[in-house]
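Suppose a colleague, Dr. K., hands you the sequence of a protein chain of 1223 amino acids and asks what its three-dimensional shape might be. Before reaching for any lab equipment, you can write down a predicted structure in token form. Begin with the sequence itself:
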Amino acid sequence: MRQYLLMLLGATFLVTATTATVVEPGFPALAQSRDPHSRDKGYSRLLRTHTTMDGNDDSNDERTLTDAIQKLKVQMSLAVGVPARKAYKLLKIDKSLYYVGTKEFKTLIKYVDEFNMKHPNKKQSVYETLEKVEGDKTAAAMINEGLTYPSSRLISERLLAEQFESWLREGRSPKYAVEMLLKNEDSRQANIFEKTGWGPWLSYVDAFNRRFPAQRMSPDSVLRDVYRDKNYFLELEKALKNPKTKDIAQKFETEYLAALLHEGKSADDVFKLFRIRVYTNHPTAGLRPWADYVKLADKENPEATMVKVLIENFGKETLLGKLEYWMQLPETKELATEWLAVMKSSGYVSRLWDQNSGVLLWDEVTNEGPAPEEGLFGGLFSLDGDHSVVLTAASVAMVTVKDGQVKVQTLPESFTKEAIEAAELSWQVGSDNTVLFVLAGSHMLQFELASGRAVNHFTRPEIEDSDKGDVQATTVLRRDSEQGKVVAVTLTKDQLLLQGLENKEDAHEIALSSLKLDGDKVVAIDASISNSLVVVLASGKRAILKISSALAVEVSAVVAAEGALMESVTDDPVLFHAAAKSGGKLAEVTSYSLGKSVAPVSWDAELDLAAFGGDVSRAFVGCPNTKKDSVPSCRAVLVLKDDALIMTSNEEDAEVASNGNVQWVREESLANIKRVRWITPAETEIEKQALKRIPSFMEEVELEIKHLQHLVEKVMSFSSTLFEEGTRQRGVDRSRAARKEPPNAHLFGFSKYIMVLTESGKLFAIRAEASTVAWSAFVGPEYQLSVTRDHPALGSGAELLLASNSTELIWLDGDDGHQLDAASAGAATGASWVVVLPKRKHLTTDEEPTARRTVAVVSEDTLKVSLYPKETAEFAHPELDNFYFYRFDKTTNVLRGYFIENEGDAKNVDYHAREAWSIVLPRDQKIIATSHHHDHSVIDSAVTITGDDSLLIKYLNPNLFGLATVVSEPAEGDNEASSVLHVSLIDSVAGRIIHRARHAHAFGPVRMVQSENWLVYSYWNAKEKRTELVSLSLFDGAVGMHSLNPWKRPSWTDTRSSFDSKAPFVLQKSFIYPTKITVTHGITPQSVLVGMETGQIFKLARNFIDPRQPEKPLTPEEQAEGLMMYSPLVPVYNRPQAMLTYNQTVANLNSISTASAELESTTLVFAHGLDMFYVRMTPAKSFDLLPSDFNHEMLILLCLAFLVATFVTKALARRKALKTAWQ
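The predicted structure, expressed as tokens, is then:
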């Protein structure tokens, strides 16, 4: 066969007319013909191949022959300058493979390289050759395919560079590149980001933007153009589900949503753009990115906007069904739950009570729909005796008073939008009670009440800037006082413009200077008064203006700036003004009638307004019994400045008149408590005796003897009155038992004052056992409460400190509330912090009357420390040695720790604070909860004894505090950002983070409680829709059961330093709590009080949430220790005996506070919300206390009877013994 081939080659050379021998590097030497016509014929003969069917070696020889012939043809083409595209055709590359790594293609590349070297003026590129022969689309597909194989990757990268250069020369846009590199690729991959051409396409976009900066395009905009919006988000959704492309898909989705926001797309526009109604069987197709977009567009109330759009597109009933379905899907469960909650919580509830019995007759939702516009409430007013109207920015609801039927009509969307922007609604009912006029900004709406439809909607011209001046120019709707016709009143800088709405021809202009205001100037219209035209004057006073039917205006009255001006509840044209009078000892209520049908009335209520804040903030007045030409009988509920309520009346009632026209007083400020502290008042004369220092041993013995003498005197006094005044004494005891106030409460530590500071600034001292107010004082809402001394000591009673925002310091006596001292530190130090220093153990000088606890005021700018009271600022304070404190800087989101040092000497002190450490929190992290060790906390034991008698040494660090922060970040395995909770335990001295825990899908409220070596906190898991409770314990180490004996003792130190590098080991377990938690509080021994959303308080023993609970069956040692087998669900409802509130509930439970008593295992518990709840609690059962209803008299009588019987029987026994001896 080889001989045959050689002969064939020789024959080929012989038939050539003229030959020339050319040797080229890289190719074998061969002859090329000068006759182009004969060349193709020879090639055709040489390219014939013979296929063998028997599979012998002849086929390999023929393939070798074919390769050789192809190389000969290529070399001959090179010699005569044949274009590369003809050489490509002659090589007959199999394009069905879409592969640039074949030997034929490599030969073509070699040919092009050699051609360019031989013909530098006719340079060609491989890509242009490929593109001219196969077309751009096929060429791009072949290059992409080559990029997937290592053997051809370098060739494909070269071709890619030539391809980009060719496209850039031709000015091809990135959109063209998408068609060639991405959409042209027949890939098995799921999304565009996984396609082979994705990386090259991004590179081309960068190259295009550098070459043509004026035509710059972003990848996101190009993809949106090519794929169209309706399909682009589907590609993004597929990419987000793939972990490999999740990050880049999130980036492009964010850019996509930002672009839509920049284009001003509404929530409804994007809803339709994403074609969510089409993909309802696949809720993730567009639903989640649409929700993300709404959250970007609406920062205030995105959930409500989403539900509004969903209702508009699906209808309420259909949407409810879809939400139920979506809640079953993991990807939409959280969104559907939020939307369902918004739908169920929207609307206003109207209720009707019987005024005589107080029975609730009916309650109905007067408007529905989750749009945030309904947050703007217009008013509730009576239309006639049978109907009332509830007005909001989005709807008008007609309520039938008899049966509570509601008819709701939605207002036009443009009007609602204007009302939200104006943040104010002005309305009036027409004189015939058939039409409702509503004004919002420049939009006016005329609403027909009978048919429930808007009959006229128009826009009023806006007030020109030149007419505004210094006044608050605005337009309101009012009625004239004669015919009751609706008038639009516009205030400008110089005049009042009045335009009739029921008769368009009625119009009038009133110059402000013509009003008789004694030179005062009108600056605004009081929008809070809707039934009359009231203007605010520059002096703060308010002028009541009367509008006649001819639209003339006159001043009816001018009332003081103080007090409250309000409409009458019963009479439309009547106003009432309530304010303090005669130095704050009286509250005056005066009526102002704009008509002649109601006689004016005025009366005084005798009340010490100074104790209630000094003024009236709001009032509700009505005169239900009004007779013509007679003084009306009126009643007023006054809301005072401290939120107290008083009922006053001018009725001629003897009992009411004897009480200064005050029927009752309610301290409603107790419904808004912001701070609770406990103190022990001085009950005996011994506690009030002044001491200069802590008593020595002998002095303490003398004090105990005095206590004993006092006890004997009490017993003697009690025994002397036992029989003489038995009936009266028993009556007193029953009274005290009814009030839960034992006569010896102070002996057992039950005599406590609960110091309560309310949001309005009212301070109460509540006697815990008696449930009465010992004293109260109004201090102002700007003050914060601290306790500098919580029990009588060194001859002084309990002491309170009030610190204002401007660093005004006031010291009060805890026993009766009188002021002890005051200081103003704000003027000298500027912005500053108040730090209560540790207690002093003795008086520094003999001249100092009492041992006052020192307060440090630290300047924020210079960190200079000023000490108060002033008499303690001149000498050194040993208690400041190694004193550390910390604070959080909200502006920089930094937690900083400080210590105080004396830069002077013992005589000339100069204290400054120095920063010891700082912890910088990320900007997007927000502190939502903290915990710390409580003052006077008692350590039950320094170790935990296990069942096998081993010891676990508790990590007892009084400087430890807990910090809970939330941040929105992508959770593991999720496609979108979620709320993540970080809980940290920090040493406040060294600033060291002892422990940190992270919880994904965690939302507030977060409740934390800390005691001894354990921390318990709770949060809401949005993914699982449940409250989770985490318990952790910190230990220093352990001692084996045989490691502590007389011959072997473990080595440990008696002291601890926060700067030790050794960290404790932490045990942690999570539990499921079956209901929402509103507040938690820890007490000893080892219990946690849990305030639940139901208003009940549950005593949760620590062993139920002990992180040492084993997950396997208990061993005998673990059973002996009292451990329980781990169960995720905390048992609550099967333990009713652990409910402190029994069958009672505390409405809107906000906080729980506890204090210890002198009796063993007795804790005083105080909980507050809308209600207040107090109880004595004995976690380890009460064993040293008699019940409050114990019959003390019978016990004493029995003791005396036994004593008498003992003496009598002793005498009888002696007589019998003597008689027996004589017998």
